[in-house]
Amino acid sequence: MGRRVAPTTAAAGRQRAPVTENGRRPIRRLSPGTVERIAAGEVVERPASVVKELIENAIDAGASEIRVRLEGGGLERIEVADDGVGIPQEELLLAVERHATSKLGEQEALDEIGTLGFRGEALAAIAAVSRLRLTSRPPGSEEAHGISLVAGQLIGEFVAGRSVGTTVGVSDLFFNTPARRKFLGAPAAEQVEVTAAVERAYLARPLTGLTLTSGEREVARFPPTDRLSDAASEVLGPEFLPQSFRVDRAATDGIGIRAEVGRPSIHRSTSEGIYLSVNGRPIQSRSLGASVRQAFIDHLPRTRFPVGVIHLALDPRRVDVNVHPTKREVRIAKEREVGEILRRAVREALLATPQVAELAGPPPRPTGGPSGAEVAAPVAVGHLPPLGPSSLWAAPAAVQRRLLPEEPGPTVAGTGRHPTLRLLGSLFALYWVGEGDDGLVLIDQHAASERVLFDALRRHGRLGRQELVEPVRVGLTARQREVLSLNSEEVRAAGFDIEPFGGDQFRVRSVPSYRGRRARPDSLPPLLDELAGGGRATVPNGLAERRAATVACHAAVRAGDRITAEEMGRILEGLYGLEEAAYACPHGRPILVRFPRGRLDRLFLRSGA
């Protein structure tokens, strides 16, 4: 008979407590198998949770290289191999028991934890809901020894050949808890989450190299480095470094900060681009993330988030890592004080950084506008004049005559929902100015274009595409490559035609096109970043709508784009022709703002106003 390390029986989990005469169920002890599965559910949520725990164990074992291999996105098999110190044969069975660990001694205080894993739950929890094979060889041993378990029950011991280190193989995750397994995503979706977990682990401890493969395909390779900037470049892409600045605060008062943070020209629609770690432990912290965002308070729109890798070094006694079963969240003593120091450090470094970055490629336009789109100086629109805040007051009379339109601009016929508009020009290459039947109308060119594309995608399922004369090469991060694989149909429907070009390089052969306007090839990486999270939030909350909104945003006219008068008219005609009244873009921002004639008269104190 096999030796039971962590007993689990499905029958025990299904037994119901007997009911007494008064209808009350008595209190009883849960079976060991039920307890094990409950504990496993607290630690193991999905394949990414397994990979995270096993990587942390390998790092604590002193590994310099860790290899993660997946089959079926981790649903079929996960294998994590390291070159750490290994586990002696006599301790293998102890390693898969609950609350057994080498990382916490009898006399060590729980408020001075210096390792990543210390609860002694990870291996036991993983073993309880999978088929686990543990193989290890410590230094001085001539061969490796291993054990095999199914649902926590020992079914065999064996001898194997491998170098010093440990390999943990996990197959058929949640095979004995089908209720948990049915809530997992498709293999490609789970693989994206694993990739994100590997990236977070590497950015928190870049001294340890990490390699992720799926079947025979290498998904990502992150080499060991002692330079945070190099690690950030590996994960966020080589274009990040020229657009970043360094934060370096010595831990003179027990709070040290080392960070690589993107300039305001690099931003995202969510906080996922802020990679936080405390004492080498990747964490999630809404308050600390908000502190980083506050440092950019007057440099980024309210709907955008900065990007960066932040390492915090704190006295272990002020960090409680025993709050969350998966150790994702920590409790920090005087967290508000830490957050304020972090905000000031990032803010001071930002203000001390030259505002013009040195770029390998074309320089980006400055950031602005509530959507995070890029803003350029006012430019002429076709034959129409730009409407600058003081252009007419400062210009000589001859120049003024050239600025003023000699003929009326294009007129867009009104509908029952929209006013008739005569387009006059563009303000800051962002807002179109129109004269309505009874007042002034301002139109956000990005929001208007985005709404038209969003409804076109919902109606037809795809946009047109325009072939590029010369394919444009773009570099994609490991996570972006996985998202591209998962969302290939959505990306193709958007109008992008992409082909691999070796390593992390891809060639964009066509881009989305609509009503004669084409998107830029460099909109592909941010599109993939947002698709990784299911797309942007929209007024309708369905997944298809979120993805359509994301695609429309990146295919739409941007702030700062040069727009002809004819193109303005085409976009507004498309907006007016929508079946549903479109007062806002898919993300809820207004498209048109009207200033009635009476309000303008009152502003200028005209008689009768």
Order of strands across the biggest sheet? 5-4-3-6-2-1-7-8
Q: What is the CATH C-level name of the largest domain?
A: Alpha Beta
**Fold-level CATH name of the largest domain:** Heat Shock Protein 90
**Number of helical runs?**
19
Beta-strand level of the residues, as a percent range? Answer: 15-25%
What structural class do you assign from the helix and strand content?
A: alpha+beta
What is the radius of gyration? 29 Å
- How widely separated are the two ends? 96 Å
- Kindly give the count of domains: 3
Number-wise, the strands total: 24
* Principal-axes shape call: elongated
Query: How would you name the CATH homologous superfamily of the largest domain?
Result: Histidine kinase-like ATPase, C-terminal domain
Helix content bin: 25-40%
Topology:
Elements: H1 10-14, H2 32-43, H3 47-60, E1 65-71, E2 77-82, H4 92-95, H5 122-128, E3 131-137, E4 144-150, E5 153-160, E6 165-171, H6 178-181, H7 187-204, E7 209-214, E8 217-222, H8 228-236, E9 244-249, E10 255-262, E11 274-278, E12 281-283, H9 286-294, E13 308-314, E14 319-320, E15 331-332, H10 335-351, H11 391-394, H12 397-403, E16 411-412, E17 421-427, E18 431-436, E19 439-444, H13 445-460, E20 464-475, H14 478-486, H15 488-494, E21 497-500, E22 505-514, E23 517-518, H16 524-532, H17 543-555, H18 565-576, E24 592-596, H19 597-603
